Amino acid sequence: MEKRHVYNSGIIGNCAYLAHIQKDTNVSWLCWPSFDSSFVFGSLLDSKKGGQFSIRPVGEFTTNQYYIENTNVLRTEVTTADGTYRITDFAPRFRQYERYFKPLMLIRKIEPLDNNPRIRVICEPVSDYGQQSFQKFRGSNHVEFSNGIEQMRLTTNVSISHFFGEQSFVLSEPKYLVLTYGQPLEAPLEHTVEHFLRETIGYWRTWIKHATIAPFYQASVIRSALALKIHQYEDTGAIIAAGTTSLPEHPGSGRNWDYRYCWLRDSYYVITALNHIGQFEEMELYAHYITNITHADRGRLQPLYGINSQFELTEHILDNLEGYMGNKPVRIGNQAYEHIQNDVYGQAMIALLPLYTDYRFVFKERSDTGRWVDYILQKIEKTIDEKDAGIWEFRNFANHHCYSNLFQWAGSSAAYKIGKVIDDPQLMSRAETLMKRAAYHIEACYDSKRKVYANAAGSPYLDASTLQLIMMHYLDPASEKARAHLEALERELKTPQGLFYRYLHADDFGKPKSTFLICAFWYVEALACVGRIDEAVETFERLLTYANHLMLFSEDIDESNGSQWGNFPQAYSHVGLMNAAYRISMKLDRPIFIG
């Protein structure tokens, strides 16, 4: 068996930016000033053109990387023949002046732990996706980086001459590195870093304490919740699928996509996960982001949008970059914004439902949403009989997809519940009619001989997305029909390890070669729904082994060796874990959980 591929990095962030810190100390990915900007460090996609920000020793070394408990503050301990030192990396985030302080500031604290190791600090940012470099200027206690348009500053108590030569130095006392974009640090260095570190650790631990997390594999859910949180761009409320672009779904597959956008059609899963852990502020921000998009009526809702609600996400290929482990193409932008995916309307309606069923929202906050309900229902009425690209964004063919109509059914069901709450018989009648029309298309996908719902009407192919028929209670989980449907999907799409393929038929890029991790977590939920609790727990536990050393999950897993592939970490994989854990914990009746 070939060696398992794992992403050897952790992430830090503060809801304004995300950065990847490799186990070898290098900042391998950092996009500034926002999630969808060019990287200033991008060796993840090109080791030569991606720049570097590393703190490495002279000679060979080993590392141990871990998060400070219940935080997004990352530590990397480096051991060499000369001694041991520790790097603490974090993005400042805490309450200050009655708002969140979340600057474009990457802080790295270096401290000796044993003896006096000799180290070399390299900070060489780039711009325009590696096509340009920054000019470097010497300051009294800082290094200035400028490309004529952007400015960054590295404020430090390391000798400034160190950054203009090749020399190493002996680490005998704590050193501080503060890299800022735009606004420089104009405060005492050591005191400020230590203050920011204490406040940031306190913020994250308080955030977790205020979360509602069941004891079932609580540590794993906490890490997933922390990862999901820093994928939210707080300025607008958008939650991106991943902070990276073009990490391949499988080597040589060509399936290298830019995931630094918000997939509106995944809103149901995200809002559900946030609701389960009681993080209302994030859920409300995300709901407002969705509301703003729907109010800007452009005829159709897109599957995805930019973090600032941009509509056009034109896809480009960057030929100048070698790609992750040589995997080309490197893409920025995502053509899927042009696709027709009609499940998005149901997703948007479900996002609206908590305004009426969750009493943490006061009446004033939902008093102007009648127009929104009507808008979405009109869209469902116009698209319910259409073919579309489906959840997996097929680029060259369309069908009446079971999943799309399922979410139109679910969206109409949500509208019915809203009508009931506000005592609007006309709305209830309209929604009920749409539920029946959606059900007609869903039933057209049913194969009575195999006792399974196919991916689309008239299609022989099966699809993991139809697991949602059980989880959304379109099929009664206790019914024979649900049991048979699940078993048929297992036979065709499940691997011996409990992993799940999205589908196994050829698409625009051939047959998929890796499994999709969120589908495996959907499978866990489906098992729990139909009462196969022990199998759900066993499969969930097995899926946890596909994390990296920091309990971070990728998008795809190679069933042959458990390798991680796809963009990383994948927010929706963590959402899948959170929802699966919640589903199991609600089914278990144990006064004391183990896990």
Automatic annotation (TrEMBL):
PANTHER family for the chain: GLUCAN 1,4-ALPHA-GLUCOSIDASE, TREHALASE
Pfam families: Glyco_hydro_15 (PF00723), TREH_N (PF19291)
The protein's name: Glucoamylase
InterPro entries: 6-hairpin_glycosidase_sf, 6hp_glycosidase-like_sf, GH15-like, Trehalase-like_N
Residue span, Trehalase-like N-terminal domain: 11-95
GH15-like domain ranges (all copies): 217-582
SUPFAM superfamilies in the record: Six-hairpin glycosidases (SSF48208)
